[in-house]
Amino acid sequence: MGCSPDRPLIPGSGSLRACLDRRMTAAAVRPPLQRPRDVVLGGVSVALARHLGISLALVRAVFAASTVVGAVLSVYATWMLDNAALAIGGAAFALFYLWLWALVPREAGTPDAPGTRVIPVAAVLLGAAAAAALLVLVTWGLPTPLPVGAVESAALALLAITWTVAVDARDPQRAASAPRVRMLAAGLLILLGLLLLPGTFTAGRPLVAVLSVVLVLLGIAAFVVPPLIARWSERSAERAALAREEQRSEIAAHLHDSVLQTLAIIQNRAGAGTEIARIARAQERELRDWLFAGTDPFAGDLATELRTMSRELELEHAVRIEVVTVGDVGALESAALAGAAREALVNAARHAGGDVTVYAEATPEAVEVFVRDRGAGFDADAIPAGRLGIRESIVGRMTRAGGTAVVASSPDGTEVQLRLPRRATTASAAATEGAS
Description:
This protein is of the alpha/beta class. It contains 14 helices and seven strands.
């Protein structure tokens, strides 16, 4: 009895395991023909080896040997035998590789991980163009319409220039060296044209003279055109950014005159402690953050942390928190100062409510944060020994970080003053990095 995929299996038969193995093998799917993102040159050999299930070394050896042999055969057939069909046949494997490189898709990846390439393609093309230019000097006296290797050298140099502009300019690994390779390739074109030009008219080879002039013009264009294109792209991006900023400003002005003012009226009439006022306040802040994203000069560490704390506490408690920052507060990285400020804000929102003001100022000597509420106040000496919120989370934390914390409370309200010297902020940031 055969083992057809559509024939039912008979439990207990001796061929059950073998039949299952054959069915699993028949159902196995080949890996898709996809080039990896991290490649040596183009990833074609890896894609073929995975898809066909053969050795990667074998595929690379076949491509390398056939390309070298085919290149030699193509040059010989073109310039010695004048046989175009044989020349194309010699380049078949190289053309097949290029065809797969162009059409086989790459594996899926994230935009911030574009992949890597080990071999610098532009530099390899430039080296091959230089070798072909040397072949021109060696075979200059041969009776051919064009010097042997002249067209190949020019084509390889143009490919190197095109690669630097189209690929290497966007590759983080090659972007720095791409202009140098492009200028060397352009210089090679000009030099090759100048070498071919002398004596071409007197020797009765006008085609070589035309080629030399074209090469010089192409070399000059390679020096001039790419920087102009890059400058034009930058100007286009600047104009687009300016247009987006103007549009954002118009939208912000319209919303400020309508939606934001309506939300402010709702807060004033509903009262700071009501649920409606808290929701309106949260919506107003979210809308402002969306409208002015990226325009806040203090959109950084401590300033953003203070605003985030305030937004969260306004949703949890009947409180309205106003945050004001002065100086480069956003550039500060101090977990101790942020933690102490958060504890002071939590206490003000939980026990005082109403309106709370947060003022943060950065000076060359220190960074200070003031948290003030308008509650009934309290007696700091009457706090039980087991309550460590002010003693440890505020005063103790600031002391350990090299700063100071002062809590002043009266029947008119409470103010928490936090001060952290600049040298202490640096040490605190270093300690935080070391702990992470």
